[in-house]
Amino acid sequence: MVHGQDEPAFMDDGGFNLRPGMETSISMRKEALDRLGGNYGDCTKNGSEVPVENLYRSKYTQQVCIRSCFQENMIKQCGCAYIFYPLPKNAEFCDYRKHNSWGYCYYKLQDAFSSDHLGCFTKCRKPCSVTSYQLSAGYSRWPSVTSQDWIFQMLSRQNNYTINNKRNGVAKLNIFFKELKYKTNSESPSVTMVTLLSNLGSQWSLWFGSSVLSVVEMAELIFDLLVITFLMLLRRFRSRYWSPGRGGRGAQEVASTPASSFPSHFCPHSTSLSSSLPGPAISPALTAPPPAYATLGPCPSPSSLAGAHSSAYTLGKP
């Protein structure tokens, strides 16, 4: 099995087998995967937010978390720890002399673990950064018939023990990098805020044929419509409560008001003087009080009024 230096090896999950009497050549290619976390995916950077204690004291991986979760449930339900997994604090490995039924408890717990009743696969999230190695294998017959005697002799001297002349007891393994570079696969958001605003602007320009200036002009048009509507409503309100008909009725009421109701500075001399002067009788219609606005003028003296009336009657004689 090929794995990183800071990751434990789990032979039951990965790896490859070697055939005896064969030379196996393994070529490797390193690949890295960077996932997006937060709002884009459910992954963890270092496993600090995962509610499972890392018993391996190594880099966080999903397999490390799953086995740590199984060991915790093993201690809680069976009272002892599984011997092939790390031992937590204040715990002991299972022993038939102390735990008679731990084997039955283990297989029962294994069934619950496989069906995810323990929740380990849900709790243990994938890491955001993963390094893997893609392997490809090649096989050839080894050792050959002509060189097997010499190879067995050299292996016996190197390892200080005798190797029987049997090809089924030896194997050769070659591991090398296929290329001196690695591949990185990174996730990126398909839609960001910048691309979203850009797409909205493009769609707006496509369907409405507008630009920034057109938007400003449209806003100005809406503002002008609101102002004009407000002015029309204000004009209608003023015409309703300040109509000319109210002013006309007020003038008629003032014109028909008797003389006794005018202010003290109103001049009543014209009526009394004209009635005392000789001459033809004056129609009552001519003796009506003047309009209300005439009361604001100065009052003439009685002598001037008398002179004016006498001259008027003198001119009227035949």
TrEMBL record:
Q: Where in the cell is it found?
A: Apical cell membrane; Cell projection, Cilium, Flagellum; Cytoplasmic granule; Cytoplasmic vesicle, Secretory vesicle, Acrosome
Q: Which reaction does it catalyse?
A: Na(+)(in) = Na(+)(out)
Q: Which InterPro entries match?
A: ENaC, ENaC_chordates, ENaC_CS
Listed transmembrane segments = none
Source species, domain of life: Eukaryota
Q: Which UniProt keywords apply?
A: Cell membrane, Cell projection, Cilium, Cytoplasm, Cytoplasmic vesicle, Disulfide bond, Flagellum, Ion channel, Ion transport, Membrane, Sodium, Sodium channel, Sodium transport, Transmembrane, Transmembrane helix, Transport
* Name of the protein described by the UniProt record: Epithelial sodium channel subunit alpha
